[in-house]
């Protein structure tokens, strides 16, 4: 090999090494090479509340909420892309103060909130979409939100599920009780006063004097959850008898008064 060729070869190696070192230093110290690297800021408090999560539900309202850190000037926009399956083709949108709304032609799945002359201020925003139709298949579906061409982005996720059938039964209840009424008590506000006390199973008239009536009473109570209420029928299965089986005539018979949640029954004895 000639000496001249050897010199050129060494210079070539040195040149390549020099270019490589310069390149590494440029990336290491951030020397501008004409590459613009921008990162989007995540939207905060992103959520979508739907009025009906049933499969194929119609007239569904989406209430989409999020916070934006930077204000948008006139002409800038917020876009919301609904995942395929959520039908918003016949829905209407409301973007709130400082923005109009229109649907773009991107497969009918995008809502655009374009800032007007007043712009869109930073802070909490609510976008409402009414009249949407839910997907026909259960699952999770996304809404991608973009503020000012990727400056701030976020994703809301909703769940579409089949209706949950809830069943329950309440057993019927009916409670009936009898209680004796003490002596000297008015009967349902009537001037008639009981002559002596009674029990739930006994009406002790005792010795009856001719022409002198006696009044005894029992309180009948009913408790029920029946929708149509209740009816109670009281009947006498025999006459009062003397020792020798002679019939004691009951003057006035049996008087029955129905109250709101109970009834009072009283017996009046008379001449015999």
Roughly what percent helix? under 10%
Q: Give the terminus-to-terminus CA distance.
A: 159 Å
Helix count equals: 1
Counting DSSP E segments of at least 2 residues, the number of strands comes to 16
Assigned CATH class of the largest domain: Mainly Beta
Largest sheet: 6 strands, mixed
Share in β-strands: 35-45%
Task: Please describe the topology of this protein.
Blueprint: H1 3-29, E1 41-42, E2 44-50, E3 60-68, E4 77-82, E5 92-94, E6 99-103, E7 110-115, E8 123-132, E9 139-147, E10 152-160, E11 174-180, E12 214-224, E13 240-241, E14 247-248, E15 254-258, E16 262-269
Parallel strand pairs: 1-10
Antiparallel strand pairs: 2-3, 3-8, 4-7, 4-9, 5-8, 6-7, 9-10, 11-12, 12-16, 13-14, 15-16
Could you characterize what this model shows?
The chain has 272 residues and is mainly beta. The protein has two domains: 41-160, Sandwich (Immunoglobulin-like), CATH 2.60.40.1280; 174-269, no CATH class. It contains one helix and 16 strands. The protein has one helix spanning 3-29; strands at residues 41-42, 44-50, 60-68, 77-82, 92-94, 99-103, 110-115, 123-132, 139-147, 152-160, 174-180, 214-224, 240-241, 247-248, 254-258, 262-269. A six-stranded mixed beta sheet has the order 1-10-9-4-7-6, with no helix packed on it. It has a four-stranded antiparallel beta sheet with strand order 2-3-8-5, with no helix packed on it. The longest helix is centred in the N-terminal third of the chain and has 27 residues, at 3-29. The radius of gyration is 46 Å and the shape is rod-shaped. Residues 1-29, 31-35 and 251-264 have low confidence and may be disordered.
């Amino acid at each position: 090999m000639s000496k001249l060729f050897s010199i050129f070869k060494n210079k070539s190696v040195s040149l390549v090494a020099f270019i490589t070192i310069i390149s590494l230093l440029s990336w290491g110290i951030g020397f501008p090479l004409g590459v613009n690297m921008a990162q989007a800021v995540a939207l905060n408090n992103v959520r979508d509340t739907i009025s009906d999560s049933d499969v194929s539900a119609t007239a569904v309202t989406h209430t989409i909420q999020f916070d934006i850190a930077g204000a948008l000037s006139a002409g800038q926009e917020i876009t919301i892309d609904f995942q395929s399956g959520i039908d918003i083709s016949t829905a209407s949108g409301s973007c709130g103060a400082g923005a109009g709304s229109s649907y773009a032609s991107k497969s009918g799945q995008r809502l655009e909130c374009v800032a007007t002359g007043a712009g869109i201020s930073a802070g909490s925003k609510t976008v409402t979409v009414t009249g949407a139709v839910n997907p026909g298949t259960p699952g999770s579906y996304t809404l991608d939100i973009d503020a000012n061409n990727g400056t701030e982005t976020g994703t809301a996720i909703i769940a579409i599920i089949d209706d949950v059938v809830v069943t329950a039964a309440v057993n019927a209840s009916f409670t009936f009780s009898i209680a004796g009424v003490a002596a000297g008590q008015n009967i349902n506000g009537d001037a008639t006063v009981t002559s002596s006390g009674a029990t739930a199973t006994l009406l002790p008239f005792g010795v009856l004097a001719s022409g002198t009536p006696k009044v005894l009473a029992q309180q009948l109570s009913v408790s029920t959850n029946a929708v149509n209420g209740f009816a109670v029928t009281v009947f006498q299965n025999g006459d009062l008898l003397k020792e020798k089986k002679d019939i004691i005539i009951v003057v006035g018979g049996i008087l029955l008064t129905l109250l709101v949640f109970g009834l009072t029954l009283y017996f009046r004895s008379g001449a015999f």
